[in-house]
Specification:
There is one protein chain. The protein is mainly beta. It has helices at about 1-20, 295-300, 385-390; strands at about 25-40, 55-70, 70-80, 100-115, 115-125, 135-150, 155-160, 175-190, 190-200, 210-220, 225-240, 240-245, 245-255, 260-270, 285, 315-325, 330-345, 355-370, 370-380, 395-405. The protein is globular.
Length: about 400
């Protein structure tokens, strides 16, 4: 904790001098402090009572410095390390003092030049609908150059360090990879067309290149209806020999039934491995974030022999989701979702496509200015894919997190 405070105070001191030196420009300090409580049941084997459940609290701290000097801007965001601080109420990794290991969430410079917008450094970014690459939670080292024709039409190119200690990859091969990409977004009379193409260059395996081609289309259909369509196709060679043939498709509809009630439905399909030498599983580079489902997609991080094992990889799964979000009052919002999870192929071990069904819920309440309380949770009812792998792990898996956050 002392080391963390020393670094933070040092940064504030340095930036304080910057305020004096550049008083005509601007420096903004913001951040948040969150106290989080977790309850887990049948998610993994690391429980403190031997019965498969676990409960604890942790702390999440974030501080952001946004400095503007002329037309250039520097953004620095600090946070305590992965997994938050020491966990209260857990005898496996409890520490008497808070263990605020410092990490960098963002640290980049952004500036315009000759009509271009350029950003370089550790920044939050993603491609398309976040199905292939997503570093919007903890960031990645990147250089991005965009040219806005206007507010609604833009083209750009960039490069990302795709695999080091910052971004998790869903593949089992953890070598050094770079992503080079181009993107474009165009307004079509109220509908938005997005295109991006990415080349993943493996610096450790010769002639191992992956290419991802993506298209998205979204907009409003009138009468409260909205839609999203997206597709990714992967080509290239794995180890210079086997072809990449993975793909991802999704379709989503939303309906604003009343000003308070929004209904939505989505189907998201990621190709999976089949027989043969070609790589037919959709390869992803995703952070540990909540995608598609809370328990299976985030807390479970994929599928393994037991709930709680695997990698954050949606490849090989098909998610069908129905949801309702309701703003009960000015300060209270609730949400409920049902998700059916299926495998896109029968694995040789578990011999079933029936992964399970999940029910997720959210509650968000604004207590006062800057102070919020929210709850997110889910119940995963495992299907035969889990039961076949391990009959002892066919009970409902539960993951609930509640959090009190002060943003400033």
């Amino acid at each position: 904790m002392k080391r963390f405070l020393a670094v933070v105070l040092g940064a504030m001191l340095v930036l304080g001098f910057a305020v004096s030196a550049f008083a005509q420009d601007g420096l903004k300090l913001s951040g948040s402090l969150t106290m989080r409580g977790w309850y887990l049941d049948t998610l993994d084997n690391n429980s403190n009572d031997g019965n498969g459940d676990d409960a604890y609290y942790d702390t999440q701290l974030r501080l952001m410095f946004d400095a503007t000097v002329g037309k250039a801007k520097a953004v620095i965001e600090l946070q305590n390390g992965a997994g938050g601080s020491s966990k209260w109420g857990r005898n496996t990794d409890f520490q008497a003092a808070e263990n605020m290991n410092l990490s960098v969430k963002q640290a980049y410079i952004a500036f315009p030049v000759a009509g271009l917008n350029i950003s370089a450094g550790h920044q939050l970014l993603s491609l398309g609908v976040k199905s292939f690459f997503d570093a919007s939670k903890d960031g990645a080292k990147a250089i991005l150059v965009t040219y806005p024709f206007d507010k609604k039409n833009i083209v750009g190119v960039g490069t990302i360090k795709a695999l080091d200690t910052d971004v998790l990859a869903s593949t089992a091969i953890a070598e050094d990879k770079d992503i080079y990409f181009g993107l474009a977004s165009f307004d079509l009379n109220g509908h938005t067309l997005g295109l991006n193409a990415a080349a993943v260059i493996d610096n450790a395996v010769a002639k191992s290149h992956l290419y991802n081609w993506a298209l998205t289309l979204n907009g409003k259909l009138g009468a409260g209806l909205g839609y999203t369509l997206a597709a990714d196709i992967q080509t290239g060679k794995q180890d210079g020999a086997n072809d990449n043939k993975g793909y991802h498709v999704r379709g989503a509809l939303s309906y604003q039934a009343t000003p308070e009630l929004n209904l939505s439905a989505a189907s998201i399909y990621f190709s999976g491995e089949e027989s043969g030498a070609d790589v037919k599983k959709f390869v992803t580079f995703l952070e540990d974030t909540n995608y598609a489902t809370w328990v299976f997609g985030y807390m479970n991080r994929g599928f393994g022999a037991t709930i709680g094992t695997g990698t954050p990889a949606p490849g090989g799964f098909w998610f069908n989701r129905l949801a309702a979000d309701y703003k009960a009052t000015k300060d209270l919002s609730v949400g409920l979702a049902y998700i059916n999870i299926r495998g896109t192929y029968d694995s040789s071990v578990n011999a079933s496509k029936e992964v399970g069904n999940e029910i997720d819920f959210t509650i968000a309440y604004n207590i006062s200015k800057g102070l919020t309380y929210n709850v997110i949770g889910g119940f995963l009812m495992p299907g035969k894919a889990y039961e076949n792998a391990n009959p002892l792990r066919d009970d409902t898996a539960i993951g609930i997190r509640h959090a009190l956050t002060l943003s400033f």
